[in-house]
């Protein structure tokens, strides 16, 4: 790994516009489960049937119970070396844009500014009626019957997690920013993403098509491995810590 890290560090220092995309694997070292592994959040469930707008309307009790389970993991989670190194790279000006598929807010907690959140944030909730947003503690409540469904304190509408559910469109501003960054990237980092979810998985492909170099930090193969100049199969925190050390950056 070290020789590859040295080469990648040189490329990063020489890059004009480096961009990173992070997925669930960036937060597993903070104790947050991923989605598709044998112990992931989707083990034994059909996510479309439970984590969708249809589920919210037709199976609300199960929907909110699932999200309360997610909150139980979220509140005690702290940034890990992945978040800290990426924030340090931003502070040093080596990483120009940070895009995430994650909804945990750990990049911001580590000090990353202006994170492009493609799938929203689990740290807030929104009213389906009036559109107001609130801290997500308002939906982290026991839901046993339809009477327990969290309601907006302003208008009484139903509150939903501030994340993009199945059957919902991604935030158009975030998508536009992300693809604009990918078009500009001469170096694109994929960190902890299986690249199975679109349209996020097209961002590194766009960068490569525009002539950018691709580095993949992921434990399992992705469909873009053949297009990558560097592949690091170690835990992302380990590989990025080695990168920070090679660059002489304090995390």
What does this 3D model show about the protein?
The chain has 251 residues and is of the alpha/beta class. The model has no long low-confidence stretch (mean pLDDT 92). It folds into 2 domains: 1-32 and 79-119 and 169-251, TPP-binding domain (Rossmann fold), CATH 3.40.50.1220; 33-76 and 121-163, SIR2/SIRT2 'Small Domain'. The strands form 2 sheets. Strands 3-2-1-7-8-9 form a 6-stranded parallel beta sheet, with helices on both faces. It is built from 9 helices and 9 strands. Helices cover 34% and strands 16% of the residues. Strand 7 (187-191), helix 8 and strand 8 (213-217) form a beta-alpha-beta unit. Helix 1 crosses helix 9 (236-247), helix 5 runs parallel beside helix 9 and helix 7 runs parallel beside helix 8 (203-209).
Task: Describe the secondary-structure layout.
Blueprint: H1 2-14, E1 18-22, H2 47-50, H3 53-58, H4 60-74, H5 81-91, E2 97-100, H6 106-109, E3 116-117, E4 120-127, E5 133-135, E6 159-163, H7 172-184, E7 187-191, H8 203-209, E8 213-217, E9 230-232, H9 236-247
Parallel strand pairs: 1-2, 1-7, 2-3, 7-8, 8-9
Antiparallel strand pairs: 4-5, 4-6
Helix pairs in contact: 1-9, 5-9, 7-8
Main features:
251 residues; alpha/beta; Rossmann fold; SIR2/SIRT2 'Small Domain'; 2 domains; 6-stranded parallel sheet; 3-stranded antiparallel sheet; 16% strand
Summarize the structure in short:
The chain is 34% helix and 16% strand. The chain is α/β, with parallel strands linked by helices and 251 residues long.
CATH class of the largest domain: Alpha Beta
CATH-defined superfamily of the largest domain: TPP-binding domain
Main-sheet strand order equals 3-2-1-7-8-9
Element order: H for helix, E for strand: HEHHHHEHEEEEHEHEEH
